[in-house]
Structures are given as structure tokens and as C-alpha cells.
Amino acid sequence: CFQVMLECQGVSKETAQELCHGDIWKVLPHVPGNQVTKLLSHRKGIITDIDAMSVAMSCWKLGAGRSRADQDIDHRVGIRLLKTVGEEKDKAISKVRVGELVKVREY
């Protein structure tokens, strides 16, 4: 069970229970919705590639990683892909949070 694994790693029973069976956002750090940046695509088409290294580097530069051991990690940082390779997207309605990191075959 995931909850037992968390507890074995030193997570309190209450926190582990909230993560597994409750509201994860009560215990996990997160950014309020009004501080989330959504990148819009300017073209419609089919997503043909997502550059994982660019996604990772973007997260790192935003604070999800560190270049020295004494630097803090911002656990609120992340990228949520709203579409995946092979999916069609319409510029009018589809939002892609990693706009320039996604290649689109136009049609």
C-alpha cells in the first residue's frame, strides 16, 4: 500500500492518509490558479512531438531542480501537458502550457 510506503519513509500517518485518501492539496505545496501561466498555441493541427528535455529544462529553470546541492527546490513548480502526441488541437480552444516546446503539424 502506498500509504504504508510513505510512512516507512518518515511521512506522518496523518499526512500519508490525506495524500492517499483525502485532499492532496491540503498537504502538497501548490501555486494558486491565478499564478499559473497557460501558454496558448497559435496554430491548429496535430501534435507530432513534445521535446521532453526542453520541458525538463524549463521546470529546472523555474526552480524544480538545482545546479548546486545547497540550493532549494521549489516543489510547486511543474508543467501539466493538456494534450499529447497524436492529438488534434484547435488554436481557438486548446491550451498548451508548454507552447514552444510542442511541435504541431499544421493542416
TrEMBL record:
Q: Which InterPro entries match?
A: PYNP-like_C_sf, PYNP_C, Thymidine/pyrmidine_PPase
Q: Name one GO cellular component term.
A: cytosol
Q: Which one GO biological process term can you cite for this protein?
A: pyrimidine nucleobase metabolic process
Recorded hits in SUPFAM superfamilies, A to Z, give: Pyrimidine nucleoside phosphorylase C-terminal domain
Domain (Pyrimidine nucleoside phosphorylase C-terminal): residue spans on this chain: 46-105
The GO molecular function terms of this record are: 1,4-alpha-oligoglucan phosphorylase activity; pentosyltransferase activity
Q: Does the keyword Amino-acid biosynthesis apply?
A: no
* Keyword vocabulary terms for this entry: Transferase
PANTHER family registered for this protein in UniProt: THYMIDINE PHOSPHORYLASE
Full protein name: Pyrimidine nucleoside phosphorylase C-terminal domain-containing protein
Q: Which organism is it from?
A: Timema monikensis
